[in-house]
Amino acid sequence: MSTKPSCMVRHFKHYAALDEQEIELLHELERSPEHLTAGDHLWYEGHESTELAVISQGWAYSYTRLENGHRLILDIYLPGDVIGLREYATDRHQASVEIIKECTLCRLPHRNLDEIFRNSEKLTRVFFAVASTQQSMLVERMINLGRRDGPGRIAHFLCEMHTRLERTNDNMAGQFRLPLSQHMLADIMGLSAVHVSRIFSQLRSDQLVDRDRHRVHIRDLARLIERAGFRDDYLGTRSIIDQSR
Predict the structure, then answer these.
(1) Angle, nearest 10°, between helix axes 193-205 and 182-189?
(2) Cβ distance 11 to 167 under 8 Å?
(3) Which residues cross the membrane (predicted)?
(4) pLDDT band for position 10 (50/70/90)?
(5) How far apart are CA 187 and CA 156, in angstroms?
(6) Residue 245 has pLDDT above 70, yes or no
(7) pLDDT at 1 over 70
(8) In this predicted model, what pLDDT tens digit does every residue of 68-90 receive, in sequence order?
(9) Which of 23, 109, 127, 180 could form a disulfide with 184 if both were Cys (CB 3.0 to 4.6 A apart)?
(10) 119-152, pLDDT tens digit by residue?
(11) How far is CA 164 from each of CA 11, 34, 157, 234, rounded to the nearest angstrom?
């Protein structure tokens, strides 16, 4: 039995305490790692949907192409995340998934997830909670695009990324790597790349955030949270499943 908790296990423990059997069931899902490099695609929008994927290392994102050719980025996937949960009930992928930085992941045929559902009520509930959290993040992204100004959008996104990364990384001290290009950030925020650059300059002048290429240092998290109007409850409550028993 594996003794070192994987990112997926650490992620799932945010939702519920797991016993050894449940941890081993999760480790079984990560037995056949696959390595992909930046720019590789996991799958494409419209292709047959028969599997999920779990990221062990690296970053990925999902996107869709609009009729005018523009790209809309939907999700940013981090170590421990499950990709494709929203498409479990569909026969076609609803979005393409591309690797941001070198990535280790495991593909999970839907039948493997069915095995989890048959053997563990708690893990079934955790998978449902993870899927619900992903849906909540999309809703919050809609609010970001529709109701927040440019600085508010980026401030909110940085608070969200910091909160998510904190779940699988200790002692971050407000500093983390954000391997997203200016154009990617623009496609997430619904802004131009030039506007994104100006906003980061403004956040720096306000002594809220320093950004050096792909390194981010949140200098005053409390003030950034206030500027963004950020609340982390949409990212899932710690041990919510245990508390509901």
Answers:
(1) 90
(2) yes
(3) none
(4) confident
(5) 15
(6) no
(7) no
(8) 888 899 999 999 899 999 888 89
(9) 180
(10) 899 999 999 999 999 999 999 999 999 989 999 9
(11) 9, 23, 11, 11
Kindly give the residue spans of alpha helices, DSSP state H, lying in the chain: 7-12, 20-28, 110-119, 121-147, 150-166, 182-189, 193-205, 221-228, 240-243
The Cβ of residue 185 has, within 10 Å, a number of other Cβ atoms equal to 21
DSSP code of 92?
B
Q: What is the DSSP letter of 175?
A: E
> What's the angle, vertex CA 58, arms to CA 53 and CA 59, rounded to 5?
75
pLDDT for residue 8 is more than 90: no
- Which tokens go with 236? 């899932």
* Higher-confidence position of 112 and 239: 112
What are the structural domains of the chain?
7-123 (2.60.120.10), 144-235 (1.10.10.10)
Confidence at 58, pLDDT banded by 50, 70, 90: very high
Task: For residue 130, give the amino acid letter.
Answer: V
In a 13 Å sphere around the CA of 186, the CA atoms on its Cβ side amount to 13
Maximum C-alpha span of the chain: 54
Residue 1 in contact with residue 20, Cβ under 8 Å? yes
Beta bridge partners of 41: 98
Cβ atoms of 95 and 89 closer than 8 Å: no
Using CB atoms within 10 A of its CB, is residue 138 exposed (0-12), middle (13-18) or buried (19+)?
A: exposed
